[in-house]
Amino acid sequence: KKAFDESLTAIQRAIELDPNNFNAYWILARICHTRDRDKEAVEALEKAIELNPDFYAAYDDLEMFYERLGDKEKYDQIIQRILQAYPRHLSQHPDDSFRRMAFAVTLAKAGKFEEAKAEGARALELSVGDPVMMYYGACLYARVQEKQLAVESLKNAVKAGYENYEWIKRDPDFDNIRDEAGYIELMKGK
User: pTM of the prediction?
Assistant: First the structure.
């Protein structure tokens, strides 16, 4: 709801009350990211992972923030960690569409486009109509250089209810579609 200062105060208070709450550090990182404070976001995510090494959402965000910060070495390291961890997770939870899509996007970032598309298609089949999955589908298509499909998927995500325009603006997955007419139209005034 764009109440960033209030959100930041609330999450800092939550951390004071429970400094071992890994989820609170993840939320802190996401708030910092929406304020273009990615170095602080990285610190919070590293703390979340320290507290819970199996907290996959933190890994996904961490690789994005390293990419935004231009830290190629740490970006490559976290990509490799994700590529090793997700197959184990998915073998135990084959219907976890969200992690399957996150794995697909990571495969694309590693240049494994065909594997990425196959995983992404399976994830989308598992979560038809989910705006968050449509959003991540757009991320995947942008990463595998299917720009028009990426723009259409992003539009569909917004139509289905995805409203985090601040995140869209900062997501490096969309760097290669920001000049596309459909993306420009979608983001006009946002």
Answer: 0.81
